Amino acid sequence: MSKTVYPRHSMSRGHENDMDLMVAILYAPEGQKPLSIARVNDRSLLAMVAQKAIREAEVAASELMADDPTLGTLQLEEANRLRRVLSLLLPTYDRLVGGVM
After folding, report:
1. Mean pLDDT computed over 63-74
2. In-domain check, residue 101
3. Which of 95, 4, 2, 99 is nearest to 49 (CA)?
4. Is residue 14 a part of any domain in this protein?
5. Do the domain assignments include residue 11?
6. What is the DSSP letter of 74?
7. What pLDDT band is residue 101 in, cutting at 50, 70 and 90?
8. N or C: at which end does the chain have fewer Cβ atoms within 10 angstroms?
């Protein structure tokens, strides 16, 4: 079973409350389309998942850096891009994870 964050949003009314972000729990059998089991719209949980996703991207960059500095640098930029995107989609991220970003 895997857990994935799928951002869905509608900016039609132009403010943060229009954002429909959620954590989705998926059952993903190998070679088949994932099946959504549950969805959670808890902002603090979203912040924790965002923090975990960023940390995993940073670890992947660090591991790549040891073998191939160019690929490691590219992965680190992907981690930074992920941080920027999640900060846009979840503006309260800093406050929810205690200012760690």
Report:
1. 95
2. no
3. 4
4. yes
5. yes
6. H
7. very low
8. N
pLDDT digits (tens, 9 = 90+) for 6-63: 544 444 444 444 467 889 999 999 999 999 999 998 888 888 898 999 999 999 999 9
**Predicted pLDDT of residue 97:** 57
Q: Which residues contact 67 (CB under 8 A, 6 or more apart)?
A: none
- The token duo for 18 is 């229009």
Residues 85 and 57: their CA atoms lie apart, in Å, by 13
Largest CA distance in the chain: 47
**Domain span at residue 83?**
2-96
How many domains, the chain?
Answer: 1
- 37 burial (CB, 10 Å; 0-12 / 13-18 / 19+) is exposed
As a whole number of angstroms, the distance between CA 58 and CA 82 comes to 10
Is position 9 within any domain? yes
pTM beyond cutoff 0.90:
no
